[in-house]
Design brief:
Length: 880
């Protein structure tokens, strides 16, 4: 599957198959800088220039003892390393040439106030690559292999693939000396680690944001290079001359501490597991030329940790067996002590899921060892998986992982945990459950309550690090009314998968007695771990395992508890974030009833002595945002299609349209709850405490934004497709316009909200009528666009234009005469707008990608000022 960049969607291909998001979506720079020889010089203004030369300066090969005195301390490990007179040397043994090594560069410390493409904190990853060290005559090269093409070494295509897949050269080094037995060479890596090399330094994005003008060598240095049995850790401080420091421009500089881990990959890669679109796993794709298929076959491997039983015989009998190597997560020592037990519990909760795959004690979390317990331990070390705690006001957490590009084996993970995720949890828990949950009716929760919420988020993020993406289809498995049952929710939580965005139970009503209000590791999670981590005896091939796993998957076909729904598409109403239950209209009705109970109590429940009303303002906006989400959940049903991935062995459609009755129900719901002014959202006594004339216009903007979403060209395109295929069984565009007309221009004198909505509707119709609104993105195939919900349509040539023209004329013909001054002026204004739309007097501007982008791309919440693309827990439609 090709990767394409679409608006509002982050699609990312990575050499190392780094899985985030959500999750997270700034593009990682992983292309190798092809510097043949590194030569650093200090310019007149003090900046460091890294020159690329055609050939290295010939200094001759010296005796080992001339460079490394006898009393020099050797740091033995992957490569022996030496420090002499401020220079760092690697002694590279012949046995490690052409071995793949994973290289991960992370921040250790960053300046305060750094806010570029999200925030960067100590422990967050900058870049990852695979390196191979190669000797050529009197030089040593670092090559960066590509894994996008492959063929088995026994295949006739192997040599051809090698010829078309040359590894780029990142850097070259002169051989300074041979060791005593000539089984290794000595190279000087000082300039390399001190230089401005993108692979182990700042990304172009950060450099541009802070207007860096090269490194300042006088304020940069290598802090340490330490060698371990399978890895080397290089700790550097790099100072860049900067015209836009996030802290103090008077310094003219910005400094970072970085750590680059180089980890030897297994000589024999783990046996890969072939991906199945019906079971959710992160993975990696490559073109395989070594198969018997009569084409260049794209294969995909899932990402998973290597789990093998200590006792294969006992495992084969069905006994639970411990793995040879346990999955271990360490808790950052910078974590507040009171939250450590809850973060650990969130990890250990996955142990039961791994039992379905035959393993006991497969995964565990521990506090990081102290310096006394293990002086060599470092949270930046790529050998360790760590939950890093960031002192940050970002309301977020995310769970990335780095996988071996040869096999999909997960090698390490650094979960990012931002301190202020607690604010997000407080807001959600209060706004979604306070109607039935007295424990949520407080400005600040008890440590025990917050700890349990942290445990839930910890489990979700660890799921990502185990290879599991978001399963946005999971929450649809449960009937809406089952979430009002105490017995059901006590057993099942809110969804079969903790990897859905099924946050907290907003459906339960007062009197239902429901007390278990948040998600938990459920049936689907157990199933996906069983599918991905079960070990098969007998040295079966990946293809043979695929056949067994396919039969397992077939047995669960049609059972919604085991359904996987991908993230990122807007065509299937089941695959939405923040939703619950199998009917968005019914669920949202319950949700709105609870919001009506919560809103009048916000001032009381957010009370804090001697504090201003900022918290009341935040919570009030959360109510607006929650209402907006409910309306979005409903809208997706209109023009919606169900997506059920299948193989040739399964019967039934992969894509079928949402039933006509369900689409009509959605349109009527919007008429009643959205287009009939939701005056209950206006609580004047509370607004008087913080609102200076903003909230009313936000409500109007929300109505307009959701209306644009309801009639965007991609949605209308699917409705026309449905009508062409299913005739009278389809909910048609004509019927949608009739329903919209009733909701927006129904009986009664329009108030200020309805007048704004009517003008907005006419202007959107004008846009559809007069602008070249083709939903097209050059270079992206139509099928790829449609897959994400951006169904292409040439509006100018489609049936949209005639229908819009008829609707505008219908509106104009039905405009009343007279009324009070503002009503009369409003109708006169609408008449002129419609006249201009039908008979434009100004030049029509083609703004494809401008206004049209707003009509075709996924609509974001205009009430949410914290929109972003970080993985994995923002208050947005991206990733949590």
């Amino acid at each position: 599957m090709k990767k394409h960049s679409l608006p509002g969607i982050c699609l990312r291909g990575s050499v190392l198959a780094l899985a985030v998001f959500a999750g997270s979506c700034a593009t990682k720079k992983q292309a190798a800088n092809q510097t043949l020889t590194l030569k650093t010089t200090t310019t007149a203004n003090g900046t460091v220039a890294t020159a690329t030369t055609g050939a290295p300066k010939k200094e001759g090969i010296k005796k080992f003892s001339d460079l490394i005195p006898a009393k020099t301390k050797v740091d033995s490990g992957l490569f022996n390393t030496y420090k002499v007179d401020g220079k760092y040397y690697y002694e590279i043994p012949d046995s490690l040439y052409n071995r793949e090594m994973l290289v991960v560069t992370r921040f250790v410390k960053t300046p305060g106030g750094l806010r570029t493409f999200g925030q960067q904190y100590g422990g967050e990853e900058i870049n990852d690559q695979v390196w191979k060290w190669e000797r050529h005559d009197k030089q040593v090269f670092i090559r960066v292999p590509s894994f996008s093409m492959r063929a088995d070494s026994t295949s006739d295509m192997y040599q051809s693939v090698k010829n078309s897949n040359l590894d780029a050269i990142l850097a070259s080094f002169e051989i300074k000396a041979f060791n005593k037995d000539t089984t290794g060479v000595l190279i000087d890596v000082t300039d390399f680690y001190n230089g401005d090399i993108q692979s182990i330094g700042l990304s172009d994005d950060i450099k541009k944001a802070y207007k860096t003008m090269g490194m300042d060598n006088s304020r940069s240095y290598i802090d340490s290079i330490k060698s371990f049995p399978i890895n080397i850790e290089a700790h550097t401080l790099k100072t860049y001359r900067s015209g836009e420091s996030p802290t103090d421009n008077s310094t003219g500089a910005i400094s970072f501490e970085l750590n680059t881990s180089m980890l030897l990959l297994p000589k024999t890669p783990m046996k890969p597991r072939i991906m199945d679109a019906r079971v959710g796993f992160f993975g990696q794709r490559q073109t395989d030329y070594g198969t018997n298929a009569q084409k260049a076959l794209v294969t995909a491997y899932i990402h998973r940790w290597r789990l093998e039983p200590k006792d294969p015989a006992a495992y084969a009998k069905g006994e639970l067996v411990e793995p040879k190597k346990q999955i271990v997560y360490y808790i950052d020592p910078a974590t507040p002590k009171k939250w450590v037990p809850y973060l650990i519990a969130g990890v250990n909760d996955w142990q039961k899921a791994f039992e379905t795959a035959g393993f006991k004690n497969a995964i565990v979390a521990k506090p990081a060892p102290t310096a006394k317990e293990d002086p060599q331990f470092s949270t930046e070390d790529a050998r360790y998986a760590v939950i890093r705690y960031f002192a940050s006001d970002v309301e977020n957490a995310y769970g990335p992982h780095v996988a071996d590009p040869r096999s999909g084996e997960i090698l390490e993970s650094h979960v990012g945990w931002y301190h202020n995720v607690m604010q997000l949890l407080r807001d959600w828990y209060l706004i979604q459950t306070a109607a039935v949950n007295p424990n949520a009716r407080h400005a600040q929760f008890t440590d025990e309550q917050m700890g349990e919420l942290i445990r839930f988020v910890s489990s979700h993020e660890i799921g990502h690090t185990l290879g599991l993406p978001h399963n946005f289809g999971s929450s649809y498995a449960y009937a809406v009314d089952s979430l009002r049952s105490k017995a059901f929710t006590d057993k099942h939580g809110t969804a079969p998968s903790i990897m859905d965005y099924a946050r907290f139970n907003y459906i339960a009503q007062p009197g239902d007695g429901v007390t278990h209000l948040y998600p938990q590791i459920g049936e689907y999670d157990d199933w996906s771990i069983k599918w991905g981590y079960t070990w098969f005896a007998g040295n079966k091939t990946a293809e043979q395992e695929k056949e067994i796993l396919a039969k397992w998957t077939d047995k669960h076909a049609g059972d919604p508890k085991y359904y996987f729904g991908r993230q990122g598409t807007s065509i299937d109403p089941r695959l939405q974030n923040e939703d619950l239950g199998d009917n968005a209209m019914k669920a949202s009705t319950y949700g709105i009833a609870n919001l009506k109970r919560i809103l009048p109590n916000l001032e009381k429940w957010s009370y804090q002595q001697n504090e201003d009303y900022d918290d009341l303002s935040e919570l009030y906006n959360e109510v607006l945002g929650q209402f907006y989400r409910y309306m979005g959940h409903v809208t997706t049903n209109i023009g919606g299609m169900n997506e059920n991935f299948k193989t040739y062995d399964q019967k039934g459609a992969v894509y079928d349209f949402v039933a006509k009755t369900r689409q009509h129900e959605a349109a009527m719901f919007l008429n009643e709850q959205l287009y009939k002014t939701p005056t209950w959202l206006i609580n004047q006594p509370e607004l008087a405490k913080f609102d200076n004339g903003v909230v009313i216009n936000r409500i109007k903007a929300m109505q307009g934004s959701l209306l644009a979403n309801e009639i965007n060209p991609s949605r209308l395109a699917r409705m026309y497709d449905n009508e062409a295929k299913n005739g009278k069984n389809a909910y048609t565009v004509a019927e949608l316009f009739t329903d919209l007309h009733t909701g927006i221009f129904g009986a009664g004198t329009p108030d200020s909200y309805k007048r704004s909505l009517q003008r907005t509707y006419v202007d959107y119709l004008k846009t559809l009528l007069n602008l070249d609104a083709s939903a097209s993105y050059p270079g992206v195939p139509a099928a790829a666009l449609a897959s994400w919900g951006l169904t292409p349509i040439n509006v100018a040539m489609s049936d949209i234009r005639p229908m819009v023209r008829v609707e505008l004329k219908k509106i104009d013909a039905g405009l009343p005469k007279g009324g009070d001054a503002i009503t009369s002026a409003h109708y006169a204004d609408l008449h002129l707008r419609i006249k201009e739309a039908l008979n434009p007097t100004r030049p029509v501007v083609n703004i494809n990608g401008g206004m049209v982008r707003g009509l075709t791309a996924p609509v974001k919440d205009p009430l949410d000022a914290k929109q972003g693309s970080m993985n994995c827990w923002p208050k947005t439609n991206f990733d949590f």
